[in-house]
Fold:
Amino acid sequence: MAPPRRKNIFRLAPPPPMTIYVRSGFLRVLTEEFAALKVKRAALVEDKVEAHSQGDLRENFGFKAAKDAIRAVDRKMDELDRFYRRNTFIEIDPAGWLTKPTDFVQLGHVVRVEKADVGGKRKDRFTFLVATYGETATDPDSGIECLPHNSPLAAVLLGLAEGKPAQVSLPAGPSVLTVLSIRNPTQAELDRLLAAIKPPEVEGEE
Structure:
């Protein structure tokens, strides 16, 4: 039996499938991005064919550039396709965040939280909007930061009630989180925080 190739030995395992909450229109943007990449690839193939007709490929830099660009587009298309096929997407309308109950932390809430390192004296306080996938904006007027619901911190915040400290495990180490307040956002805050939907930034798995 042949030994595994070096490439396979060191390849990272693909991330597990997730249920990802996204804003309405995200899947349309994803589809449009894939379609744009197909158009770009077709144009690059034409450039490659044209460069190929110009002679000796060993010194044909146009041919090599087109070939490399096609590979890059192919990788991006493959990454988007895997991202779409691996995960389950649920589109939501942020208008529903304006009036939801605030008994415990849910997607769409504005949360003020205190984070204390276990065994240390440092305490930090933050105010987050627990937002959909990919949101990273900060509201300059209120200081609220978007916290994507699938981030490590949001994963342990979701479901917590106000005023009840909880010890959690975070990438930086164990911490105690205390939710100081839970409220709904205002429409003005959402208008400042939720920018136009962009295609996802996905990483290659090679």
In short: The radius of gyration is 23 Å. The chain has five helices and seven strands.
